[in-house]
Amino acid sequence: MRLVTFKQAETTRIGAQTDEGVIDLSQADAGLPTEMVALLSGGQEMLDRTASAVAGFGGRPYADQEVRLLAPILNPPKIFGIGENYAAHAVETGSVPPENVIVFAKYATTIIGPDDPIVLPRISQKVDYEAELGVVIGAPGRNIRPEHAYDHVVGYLPFHDVSARDYQMRTSQWTLGKNFDTFSPMGPALVTADEVPDPHDLGIRCRVSGETLQEANTGDMIFDIPTLVAELSSVMTLETGDVIATGTPPGVGMARTPPRWLRPGDVAEVEIDGIGLLRNPVVAES
Predict the structure, then answer these.
(1) Which of 104, 71, 108 is nearest to 85 (CA)?
(2) What is the dihedral of CA 57, 60, 66, 67, to 10 degrees?
(3) What does the pLDDT look like over 226-276, one tens digit per residue?
(4) What is the reported pLDDT for 90?
(5) Rounded CA gap, 141 and 111, in Å?
(6) Beta partners for residue 101, in sequence order
(7) How many helices, marked H, and strands, marked E, lie in the chain?
(8) Pick from 235, 237, 203, 249: which is nearest to 100 by CA?
(9) Average pLDDT of span 108-119
(10) Which of 94, 102, 128 is nearest to 246 (CA)?
């Protein structure tokens, strides 16, 4: 399934994106939760019930123009960023590929959905693009072994780790540069894991104003998804709705000559094969 959070008639709802349009899950089954994390918390039984409701829906789905898609998860408990997880990206930034997982935090105030504007802050002159595969946790857990990691992954989504490099590089801690408002576009849909046979064999690319600036395959990750889940859960409990942004491939703006920073009027696109296309305009802070 392709699960979405959307707004229709000023009401926020969750639904399933189909070829015919968006099915409001509350119309398909009035007993289903009306918020994404609550739905995911029901586990596989709730997902099976949702799939049956969608398959048996006899009403009219909303056409695309009748709804406004939001980020699939509006308030994840945690957002983990993974740094330098593609060897070629580490090299292009002057680093050596890491021996240990590099982790930083992003916060829910950074989240926007598809077609929402990325706002370039007045106080930063070096805002960069980073296409990433987002992994969404379903079943919570602590000390998860790598061989059991996928039991805790409910699905995947396109994620854009927008980064203010001048703030990121001020100190060894990246938090400020990663957490300006609007710096975590995600969506348009959470694609459930059963529809992704191999998350490490997906083409991933970033286009800015029509120019392809990043293009790689998720199989190029240094630390794979089971390793990331095991590492993170060895420190803290992973919760339903947590998002892991798994790192970006080479081609970022800071590594280009001259650097290619995001500019007002740009349109940034993150596309992952089989997962979806996330598009956001870029605007100056007003």
Answers:
(1) 104
(2) -10
(3) 999 999 999 999 999 999 999 999 999 999 999 999 999 999 999 999 999
(4) 82
(5) 24
(6) none
(7) 7, 19
(8) 235
(9) 98
(10) 102
pTM of the predicted model as reported, rounded to 2 decimal places: 0.96
Residue 198: Cβ-neighbour burial (10 angstroms; 0-12, 13-18, 19+) = exposed
Has residue 113 got a pLDDT over 90? yes
As given in the structure block, the two tokens for residue 241 are 């709705």
Locus of tokens 């990331």:
228
User: Are the C-beta atoms of 153 and 232 separated by less than 8 Å?
Assistant: no
Region of 13 (left: φ > 0; alpha: ψ -120 to 50; beta: rest) is beta
Q: Report the chain's C-alpha Rg in angstroms.
A: 18
Q: What is the mean pLDDT of residues 193-211?
A: 98
In terms of phi and psi (left: phi > 0; alpha: psi -120 to 50; beta: otherwise), the region of 8 is beta
Neighbours of 172 (CB within 10 A): 5
pLDDT higher than 90, residue 92 = no
DSSP lists the bridge partners of residue 190 as 3
Return the closest-CA partner of residue 250 out of 133, 85, 134: 85
Tokens of 61: 């789905």
Contacts of 198 (CB under 8 A, 6+ apart): none
Residues paired with 5 in a beta bridge? 14, 70
Phi, psi of 149 (to 5 degrees): -60, -40
Number of Cβ atoms within 10 Å of the Cβ of 153:
21
Strand, coil or helix: what is 67? coil
What average pLDDT score do residues 154-177 get?
96
Residue 175: which residues within 8 A CB-CB, separation 6 or more? 104, 105
∠ CA 140-17-245, nearest 5°, is 40
**What is the average pLDDT across 72-87?**
96
How far from 80 is each of 32, 67, 135, 179, 197, CA to CA, in Å?
A: 28, 29, 10, 12, 23
